[in-house]
Automatic annotation (TrEMBL):
Organism: Xenotaenia resolanae
Transmembrane regions listed in the UniProt entry: none
Domain of life: Eukaryota
Limits of the HMA domain: 40-103
PROSITE patterns xrefs: HMA_2
Protein name: HMA domain-containing protein
Gene3D superfamilies: 3.30.70.100
Length: 112
């Protein structure tokens, strides 16, 4: 009698995990869709920078690019904040074009 119950529990766990993963995928797709709407999004990146020269190169890679609204760089924290209508992958690519590694730390909306 225990075998059918344990099989039911195993199937239930697998189904629950599948449904939970589906919800996360759907939420991620919504975030990506909202980012593609052209509305500026705040992106926070951890970027390997050791000096002001590094920061200047990152700033030059981002400034003046269509879709980039603002840039804030903190060398001490190795942090770059960008407000842009670009996707996080596009901004990351621009930063990494300077030869520095960038890792997305956070995404947020901008005030209306």
């Amino acid at each position: 009698m225990a075998a059918p119950v344990s099989k039911f529990i195993s199937v239930s766990r697998k189904l629950g995990t599948f449904l939970l993963n589906s919800v996360f995928i759907a939420q991620a797709a919504t975030v990506v869709h909202n980012m593609d709407s052209g509305r500026p999004t705040k992106l926070e990146f951890a970027v390997q920078m050791t000096c002001e020269s590094c920061a200047d190169k990152v700033r030059a890679a981002l400034e003046g690019k269509p879709g980039v609204s603002s840039i804030s760089i903190d060398v001490g924290k190795e942090e770059v904040l960008v407000e842009a209508a670009l996707t996080s992958a596009e901004v990351q690519s621009l930063i990494e074009s300077t030869g520095r590694r960038a890792v997305l730390k956070g995404i947020g909306g901008s005030e209306q």
